[in-house]
Amino acid sequence: MFPEVTEREEMMNTLKTFLLLGTLSALLVSAGAALGPEAMVLFLGLAVVMNLGAWFWSDRLVLRMHGAQPLTPGAAPELSRMVAELSTRAGIPVPKLYLVNDPQPNAFATGRNPEHGVVAVTTGLLERLPAAEVRGVIAHEIAHIHNRDILIASVAAMLAGAVSFIGNALQFSAFFGGSQDDEGGSPFGGLLLAFLAPIGATLIQLGISRQREYLADAFGARIAGDPEALASALERLHLGTARIPSHAAQPATASLFIVNPFAGVGGIARLFSTHPPMEERVARLRAMTRGSRGHAA
Known about the structure:
By secondary structure, the protein is mainly α. Helix content is about 65%, strand content about 5%. The chain has one domain (about 5-295). The protein is built from nine helices and four strands; from the N terminus they run ααβαβββαααααα. The protein has a four-stranded mixed sheet, with helices on both faces. A hairpin with a 7-residue loop joins strand 3 and strand 4.
């Protein structure tokens, strides 16, 4: 058994996710108030429609974008048994399995709910990682499906998209003579909000994505029963993505992968990373290993 402190940490990460969603919602209300209630409803409606479409059809689109091909149980029996076992441990239907012809070792999950879950792995992952580490990676992706992270990411994207729409409308209004000052407020304040709100929304959305990665690491380590294997896999994948260019990944889908396929980002750009720092992810997993050994002793 893993120690209680790790479960408390997982609860705190969940709380942080919903606090970030609440902050994003508050930012939407603030930005919408500057534009006016009627316009805010319009832009929110547009964001809802766009993201509902993405939610229902994004899995097929993402698989097509990466040239993913379905893997039948007969084509990859060991991998299929691994997916079935871990899905049973997680208490979800067995997700469909896809293969991406890409030398870079990586994997991602998609699907709007566990009933439509998909796990996709690259040829590089299967060729370069030992079975125990592949199992850890699969467990991480199944954790995303179990935790309904696609739904949470869609809600965050909807809210962030609406804030960005409103920010753009405020900028347009300010540059072409619209007033943000009907109640005597500062026009400069409205213009500042127009520029900063979309940036703030993006940072909060990325913060939600990073929290979900921590949760998937912890849950995946639990169902696999081997935090060290996942930690070692993450280190190997991190090195692999830095050394082996991806033939399939695209910046728009980088957040889906277990490891950012465009490694080497540093400096202020790390603020806009969809993934937590690799050293922090590995440290948390190895703390789980130490804690489980301490409990066993």
